[in-house]
């Protein structure tokens, strides 16, 4: 593979350079991501946002006598963690925009207990250059809860990324810092 500096006068990577970089990593395992704790407060906020106040998620006492013996997170809450959990698995400093495009083959093989810690493993499943200067990257993701053998969610997650001006090729390995784009208060 040629280095980006061999492709442009200023050393910036092109979209085909980035696509080639990702294509070379198809099938290679990424991760695991850092642990993320599923708090009762986060589950409550998700319930409020989605209007899904089912007792198995929110009522600890009733949930203890329910099918799982404790409160469990919403399946869609678990799915919604995928972009966050996978954000540290790829170096995305080369992009100016990332969009969720598709989710396919979503499964919830096990429940996610409220209070558990989760993390993600992934591998690049496919890559292709798309119209309007987007790169499509499909990750096969498995979200696991600490101490459980079955994953709590598996999904093929497709994202579209736009190349940032002056972008450089990504680097392998975990990304230690993912910036929070929210304005400081």
Question: Summed up, what is this model?
Answer:
The protein has 185 residues and is of the alpha+beta class. The protein is 22% helix and 29% strand.
Describe what this molecule looks like in 3D.
The chain is α+β, with helices and mostly antiparallel strands. 22% of the residues lie in helices and 29% in strands. The chain is built from six helices and six strands. Strands 1, 2, 3, 4, 5 and 6 form a six-stranded antiparallel sheet that branches. A hairpin with a 7-residue loop joins strand 5 and strand 6. The longest helix has 11 residues, at 40-50. It is elongated, with a radius of gyration of 19 Å. The model is unreliable at 1-8 (pLDDT under 50).
**Which sheet architecture does the biggest sheet show?**
6 strands, antiparallel
Q: Which runs of at least 5 residues are low in confidence (pLDDT < 50)?
A: 1-8
What series of H and E elements makes up the topology? Answer: HEEHHHHHEEEE
In whole angstroms, the N-to-C terminal distance is 44 Å
Protein structure class: alpha+beta
Overall, the morphology is: elongated
- C-alpha-based Rg, rounded: 19 Å
Name the beta content range.
Answer: 25-35%
Number of strands: 6
Q: What proportion of the residues is helical, as a percent range?
A: 10-25%
Residue-averaged pLDDT, rounded? 90
The DSSP helix count reads 6
Which labels suit this protein?
alpha+beta; disordered N terminus; 6 strands
Topology:
Layout lengths: L14 H9 L5 E2 L5 E2 L2 H11 L4 H4 L1 H5 L10 H6 L1 H5 L8 E13 L9 E14 L3 E12 L7 E11 L22
Antiparallel strand pairs: 1-4, 2-4, 3-6, 4-5, 5-6
């Amino acid at each position: 593979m040629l280095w980006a500096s061999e492709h442009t006068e200023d050393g910036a990577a092109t979209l085909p350079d980035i696509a080639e970089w990702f294509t070379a990593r198809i099938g290679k395992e990424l991760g695991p991501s850092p642990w993320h704790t599923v708090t009762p407060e986060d589950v409550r906020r998700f319930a409020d946002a989605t209007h899904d106040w089912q007792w198995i998620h929110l009522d600890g006492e009733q949930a203890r006598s329910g099918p799982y013996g404790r409160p469990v997170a919403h399946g869609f809450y678990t799915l919604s963690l995928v972009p966050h959990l996978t954000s540290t698995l790829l170096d995305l400093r080369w992009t100016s925009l990332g969009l969720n495009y598709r989710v396919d083959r979503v499964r919830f093989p096990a429940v996610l207990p409220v209070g558990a810690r989760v993390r993600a493993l992934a591998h690049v499943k496919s890559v292709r250059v798309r119209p309007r200067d987007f790169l499509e990257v499909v990750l096969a993701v498995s979200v696991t809860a600490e101490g459980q053998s079955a994953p709590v969610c598996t999904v093929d997650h497709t994202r579209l990324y736009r190349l940032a001006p002056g972008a450089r090729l990504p680097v392998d390995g975990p990304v230690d810092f993912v910036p929070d784009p929210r304005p400081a208060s």
